[in-house]
Amino acid sequence: MILQHVPIIDLQPYFSGTSEGKEKVAEAVDQACRSIGFLVIVNHQIPRELIERVYVLTRRFFALPLEEKRKVDRPSPDMVRGYSGVAEEGLSYSLEEEAPPDLKESFSIGPSNVPDDEYHRGKAAGPHFAPNVWPENLPGFKEAYEEYFQVMSELAAAMMRIFALALKLPEHYFDDKIDEHISMFRSLSYPHLKDGIQPGQMRAGAHTDYGSMTIVRPDSARGGLQVCNRDGNWVDVPHVEDGFVVNIGDLMMQWTNDEWISTLHRVINPPEDSTSDDKRQSLVFFHQPNYDAVIECLPGCSSAANPPHYRPITSGDHLHSKFVKQTTFGKGIAA
Ligand SMILES: O=C(O)CCC(=O)C(=O)O
Ligand SMILES: [Fe+2]
């Protein structure tokens, strides 16, 4: 059955470790990834205290004066680190569309405590392990962000094991392809702008994500995340207290030979007549396999009648090709 809405999936049976429990979760995830490319997970084992701490520190960061935030500006266009201001990027650029820039600010980090060796620092590593930049005078910010990056990496590894089971592969199939992952954690702040909005301008324009998966801790504020379903209708992603939104990106779609779909989504503005302050903040983890992991049609995803749709490509080159597209079409680089 093709789902037209985003399902809510309880991960508890997976974490309880029985093979029936794992099977049940894997089947539900397979159906979600085939139908709509999005799911909401509950019982994910991420401590609530940490999520709250990161959320509060993020509010504090975005509330700083602009000149303070500018001190941790993105170091260069190909390094997604540090701060980007409102309307400096447009996610729709990656779709080769002319669209007005997004109404959001962001702060991004990549892996920390990177070993000083050839794999991580050599030419082949490119900007994937670029150093992080940190705001001064925000006690606990760096620690909380690094801890969040770590727990998200573990949750993504668990999701990749569920993905493997869902695709009828050995549970640990992806483990050695993500053990040096080049993911990015990005906090997003969407101010509630009441005027100066251009026609068609949104909090985040319609786009697909690039990598293996995205894990989002959203906000209940009005003006939220929507997904375009198979019928071509925009549907709201349900807001579940203590839930995370998971969606697969273009790389996973390519890996599965289009069996799973990377779906268009967007973040809409609050209603025009709203008199309240509907500012919104989300915490977004973009998971991306090791830069040298080869993304080629997974076993079981092709047949004589349905040969591989894509040539093999490394995760690093795949990500780079998205960035190049974006710099050609817009002034910024998004996630
Ligand atoms: O803020 C959100 O809920 C999602 C944002 C998003 O889709 C993105 O940054 O790729
Ligand atoms: Fe996205």
Automatic annotation (TrEMBL):
Its UniProt entry gives the catalysed reaction(s) as: L-arginine + 2-oxoglutarate + O2 = guanidine + L-glutamate 5-semialdehyde + succinate + CO2; 2-oxoglutarate + O2 + 2 H(+) = ethene + 3 CO2 + H2O
Q: Name one GO molecular function term.
A: metal ion binding
Q: Which PROSITE patterns match?
A: FE2OG_OXY (PS51471)
InterPro entries assigned to the protein according to its UniProt record, in alphabetical order: DIOX_N (IPR026992), IPNS-like_FE2OG_OXY (IPR044861), IPNS-like_sf (IPR027443), Iron_ascorbate_oxido_reductase (IPR050231), Oxoglu/Fe-dep_dioxygenase_dom (IPR005123)
- Pathway in which the depicted protein is active: Alkene biosynthesis; ethylene biosynthesis via 2-oxoglutarate
GO BP terms: namely: ethylene biosynthetic process
Keywords for this protein: Ethylene biosynthesis, Iron, Metal-binding, Oxidoreductase
EC numbers: 1.13.12.19, 1.14.20.7
Enzyme class, top EC level, equals oxidoreductase
Q: Which cofactor does it need?
A: Fe(2+)
Which residues does the UniProt record annotate as the domain Fe2OG dioxygenase? 180-289
Q: In its UniProt entry, what is this protein called?
A: 2-oxoglutarate-dependent ethylene/succinate-forming enzyme
